[in-house]
């Protein structure tokens, strides 16, 4: 148990050291105190539209940076605005919204400084790298100049002011945060006469700090930013941390100082001026309309209203409603700061968003993250949630916790409010025995809980290792640890490993099992069979090319007495034939079906996530059963048919040619397709979806009768070179000589179900508006179409919004830069100008760099192998080597737009790819990496230089860590 401490001090940072200061009231009559004067800068955010906000004192129109001002996958749209305390307020989305201004006007802080802001936070950031979420700041922390008003962890208010030699910080009391979901009036003041910084919350003092006996120094060379830190941490090479999410209203900067009575009076006067003398409730709902027109965002699958999700979990049925929770980052479409999102449904396919269920909290077992878990109904008090609590202060960092709803008190069956218990449910001590070794205590997560015959069972994902007291010396494989109890709160008794894989003979399930699920398998008529299915997601400590791509399962018997799973087959089986079905969770419905949820990873780059504003979605829930032959039955839940709208085709007992003719007028990107086909003597049957008439873009679902293989071919699924492609599939037997196919198509989402035995989940990202056609073909034979039905699908949340943004076509009257994508496998067409860092050995088809994640290099129809130039050559000096590489010299033509993929080190002066004018060597545009190996696409608009001779240079003059640059797919429109 971690003791809760009631803090009665605040702190100041003096010369980089944190020093405690006791609360002290502001002197009632401090000598020579200068009262607050007229604002030197004020932003009220009262605009109803547009991409600027007006600074009221100077009249300047300050730009609002926002991801959809120049959108990539949807129509452009303005930053989000809502009702404020008075007038309007600006919604900061946590990763892209920031106001950039020149400064606080004519301000001399020597006479005092006061900042005011109204804020309504949506979520609290973790304080990444120890930096606050900045509300408003213009400071240089290295020079210890300027000011910042912001939030630390869990909403604690903070004000910093620089004095050149010291950056003084006052923190508000931890029990007086800026509360999520309500408006808070915050005032920060500097009193030079009293040598104090003071913080006020709703007019009441919450903290003071002593300042040096010298005047503060501003940071005029820094931009004044509202919503983002002046020195934010860059995450994944793409996202800025230390940003604010929520509403802001009326940011005011004034010369002069407030004392306690004046702060109270000003706040009371502000309240008195409001209608009804009441502060309105902020509208912080994340409306899905933000993504209207997105050409890839699914419409009838479950996904959060904004930002990032990972696996849905803890499905549970209670009082006529299905609840699903999911891993969620409210700060942006990237992994981190994990909360539990929550949605509710009456039919498992139409969903309604509810408030965040669980969030990291200081007084819980999950201050650093609320990771995956499960739910089960505990009698009259309703469902209880079991979650993985992350606490970085602990040696093993992970344990399981319990959360209960307020249903017993409020009777609300939506279950919108949850309380996390401060006591852990289970923890993994070092040396916990687990078969051939001990449980890997640092990997102890994802509880799956159910109750049966008065006994509560808990599975916890982990691994089995040998440990010498300081390090892991051997990894045996993954496992699920079993605990039992008589009530959810415990005490829980450890019963050993449920089952395990041996890495030496069964490496596929990984070193650790995540998200273990154990469900009974009903028979074809829903009757009990006595069999269970055990599903897991594999995890590896280091990067592994198969990570987050697979779900494995065993069919077998659960021995309740021994708490062991006895499989019917030793080899684990892969659940899905694609590479996008992961993160299983499951439950038993009231009518006895065993239903699985999953996350469908979208396999997009971090840059694409940032540009789209969302990441990942849930798969369609599937029913699993035991077939008469002892194999697994897999079907989308029957409720999926409730999403069907207009029937677009109904074809019976005809030839493939006739069926294809009747499909000529059928198109769509939200479809439910059902087909029964007799291949007869045909070598293969192929259904093309998301197809252009000329085949430029199309995705092929095929069954090869000779190889008995069902597959998806995405080689032509998209003209976008940054989209993942490839072929995936597996062995599937015909069902009585017939191919039974069900396809659910939802924009970028594609799920195929074959013969009731297999699923294939994938993603496709066409670029063309006309990539919506269907085609059916048979190769080398006369197949027979027995049934073919196509329905248009309705949305899971509301009426589907039509996609409305497509890429303009590239110029057609141009040539390409020679070997622009290194498809030759060497440096043909390029010249090594100097140095040793670039050679033919740098051109590679590697998809990862060995110690981390994927490159995500370009994949085109001309270079399906994905060649690219990796600037790190371990056989030629690695990061220490330097050099310059130059392309052929060409005449710039077409629209003059050049784009390329770049990654590697971040050093714009010594490490970059550049477009250079040949006649004088002038660099027209250049880009460096961002300290990550994953590629991001940069675009240079060089229309002003059309007709000039140019070349591309790749320059590496940097040594040491990250002293390399990577380049791929250099697209230059070359005049013929």
UniProtKB/TrEMBL annotation:
Q: Which Pfam families does the UniProt entry name for this protein? A: Glyco_hydro_32C (PF08244), Glyco_hydro_32N (PF00251), Laminin_G_3 (PF13385)
Q: Where is this region: Disordered?
A: 27-47, 205-225
Which interval of the chain is the signal sequence?
Answer: 1-22
Q: Name one GO molecular function term.
A: beta-fructofuranosidase activity
| Residue ranges of domain LamG-like jellyroll fold in the record | 111-261
InterPro entries named in the record: ConA-like_dom_sf (IPR013320), GH32_Enzymes (IPR051214), Glyco_hydro_32 (IPR001362), Glyco_hydro_32_C (IPR013189), Glyco_hydro_32_N (IPR013148), Glyco_hydro_beta-prop_sf (IPR023296), LamG-like (IPR006558)
Q: Which UniProt keywords apply?
A: Disulfide bond, Glycosidase, Hydrolase, Signal
Could you tell me the Gene Ontology terms of the biological process aspect for this record?
A: carbohydrate metabolic process
Q: Which domain of life is it from?
A: Bacteria
Top-level EC class as recorded in UniProt: hydrolase
Enzyme Commission number, as recorded = 3.2.1.26
Family listed: Belongs to the glycosyl hydrolase 32 family.
Query: What PANTHER family has UniProt attached to this entry?
Result: BETA-FRUCTOSIDASE (PTHR43101:SF1)
Per its record, how is this protein called by name?
beta-fructofuranosidase
What is the scientific name of the source organism?
Streptomyces swartbergensis
């Amino acid at each position: 148990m971690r003791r809760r401490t009631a803090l009665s001090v605040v702190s100041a940072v003096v010369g980089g050291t944190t020093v405690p200061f006791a609360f002290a009231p502001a002197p009632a009559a401090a000598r020579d105190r200068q009262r607050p004067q007229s604002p030197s800068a004020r932003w009220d955010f009262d605009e109803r539209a547009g991409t600027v906000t007006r600074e009221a004192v100077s009249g300047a129109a300050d730009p609002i940076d926002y991801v959809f001002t120049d959108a990539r996958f949807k129509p452009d749209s303005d930053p989000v605005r809502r009702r404020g305390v008075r007038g309007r307020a600006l919604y900061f989305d946590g990763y892209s919204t920031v106001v950039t201004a020149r400064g606080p006007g004519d301000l001399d802080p020597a006479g005092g400084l006061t900042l005011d802001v109204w804020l309504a936070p949506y979520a609290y950031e973790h304080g990444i790298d120890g930096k606050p979420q900045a509300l408003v700041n213009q400071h240089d922390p290295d020079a210890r100049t300027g000011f910042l008003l912001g939030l630390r962890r869990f909403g604690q208010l903070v004000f910093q002011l620089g004095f050149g030699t010291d950056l003084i910080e006052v923190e508000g009391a931890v029990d007086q945060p800026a509360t999520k979901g309500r408006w808070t009036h915050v005032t920060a003041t500097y009193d030079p006469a009293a040598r104090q910084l003071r913080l006020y919350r709703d007019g009441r003092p919450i903290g003071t700090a002593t300042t040096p006996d010298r005047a503060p120094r501003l940071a005029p060379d820094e931009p004044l930013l509202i919503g983002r830190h002046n020195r934010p941490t860059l995450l994944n090479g793409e996202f800025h941390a230390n940003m604010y999410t929520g509403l802001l209203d009326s940011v005011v900067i004034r010369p002069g100082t407030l004392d306690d009575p004046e702060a109270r009076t000003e706040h009371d006067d502000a309240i008195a001026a409001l209608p009804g003398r009441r502060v309105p409730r902020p509208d912080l709902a994340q409306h899905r309309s933000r993504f209207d027109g997105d050409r890839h965002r699914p419409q009838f699958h479950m996904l959060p209203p904004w930002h990032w999700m990972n696996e849905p979990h803890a499905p549970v049925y209670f009082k006529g409603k299905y609840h699903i929770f999911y891993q969620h980052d409210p700060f942006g479409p990237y992994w981190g700061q994990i909360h539990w999102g929550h949605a509710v449904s009456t039919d498992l396919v139409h969903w309604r968003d509810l408030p965040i269920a669980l969030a990291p909290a200081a007084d819980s077992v999950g201050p650093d993250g609320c990771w995956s878990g499960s739910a089960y109904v505990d009698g009259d008090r309703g469902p209880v949630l079991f979650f993985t609590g992350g606490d970085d202060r602990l040696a093993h960092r992970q344990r399981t916790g319990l959360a209960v709803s307020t249903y017993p008190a409020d009777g609300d069956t939506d279950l919108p409010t949850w309380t996390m218990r401060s006591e852990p449910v289970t923890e993994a001590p070092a040396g916990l025995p687990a078969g051939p070794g001990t449980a890997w205590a640092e990997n102890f997560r994802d509880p799956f809980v159910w109750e049966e015959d008065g006994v509560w069972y808990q599975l916890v994902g982990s691994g089995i290792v040998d440990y010498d007291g300081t390090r892991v010396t051997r990894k045996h494989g993954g496992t699920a640890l079993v605990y039992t109890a008589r009530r959810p709160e415990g005490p829980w008794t450890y019963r050993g490993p449920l089952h395990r894989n041996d890495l030496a003979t069964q490496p596929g399930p990984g070193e650790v099992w995540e998200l273990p699920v154990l469900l009974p398998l009903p028979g074809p008529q829903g009757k009990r069979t006595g069999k269970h299915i055990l599903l897991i997601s594999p995890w590896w400590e280091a990067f592994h090319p198969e990570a987050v791509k697979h779900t494995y399962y065993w069919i077998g018997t659960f021995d309740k007495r021994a708490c062991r799973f006895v499989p019917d087959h030793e080899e684990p089986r892969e659940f899905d034939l694609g590479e996008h079905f992961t993160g299983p969770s499951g439950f038993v419905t009231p009518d006895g079906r065993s239903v699985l949820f999953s996350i469908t990873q979208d396999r997009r780059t971090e840059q694409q996530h940032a540009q789209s504003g969302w990441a990942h979605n849930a798969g369609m829930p599937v029913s699993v059963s035991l077939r008469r032959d002892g194999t697994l039955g897999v079907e989308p839940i029957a409720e999926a048919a409730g999403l069907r709208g207009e029937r677009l085709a109904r074809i019976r007992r005809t030839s493939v040619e006739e069926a294809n003719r009747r499909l000529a007028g059928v198109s769509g990107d939200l479809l439910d397709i059902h087909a029964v086909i007799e291949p007869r003597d045909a070598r293969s049957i192929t259904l093309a979806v998301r197809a252009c008439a000329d085949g430029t873009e199309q995705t092929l679902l095929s069954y090869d009768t000779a190889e008995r293989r069902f597959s998806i071919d995405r080689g032509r699924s998209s003209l976008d070179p940054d989209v993942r492609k490839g072929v995936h599939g597996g062995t599937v037997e015909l069902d009585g000589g017939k191919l039974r196919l069900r396809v659910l198509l939802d924009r970028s989402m594609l799920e195929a179900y074959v013969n009731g035995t297999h699923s294939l989940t994938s993603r496709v990202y066409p670029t063309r508006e006309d990539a919506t056609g269907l085609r059916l073909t048979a190769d080398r034979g006369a197949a027979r179409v027995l049934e073919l039905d196509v329905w248009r699908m309705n949305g899971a949340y509301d009426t589907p919004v039509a996609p409305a943004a497509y890429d303009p076509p590239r110029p057609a009257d141009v040539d390409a830069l020679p070997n622009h994508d290194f498809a030759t496998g060497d440096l043909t067409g390029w010249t090594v100008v100097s140095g040793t860092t670039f050679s033919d050995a740098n051109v590679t088809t590697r998809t990862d760099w060995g110690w981390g994640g994927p490159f995500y290099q370009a994949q085109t129809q001309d270079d399906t192998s994905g060649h690219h130039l990796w600037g790190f050559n371990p056989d030629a000096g690695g990061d220490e080597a330097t050099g310059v590489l130059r392309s052929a010299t060409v005449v710039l033509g077409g629209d003059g737009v050049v784009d390329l993929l770049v990654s590697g080190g971040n050093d714009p002066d010594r490490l970059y790819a550049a477009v250079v004018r040949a006649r004088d060597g002038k660099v027209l545009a250049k880009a460096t990496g961002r300290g990550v190996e994953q590629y991001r696409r940069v675009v240079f608009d060089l229309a002003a230089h059309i007709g000039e001779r140019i070349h591309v240079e790749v320059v590496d003059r940097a040594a040491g860590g990250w002293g390399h640059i990577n380049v791929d797919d250099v697209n230059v429109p070359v005049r013929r």
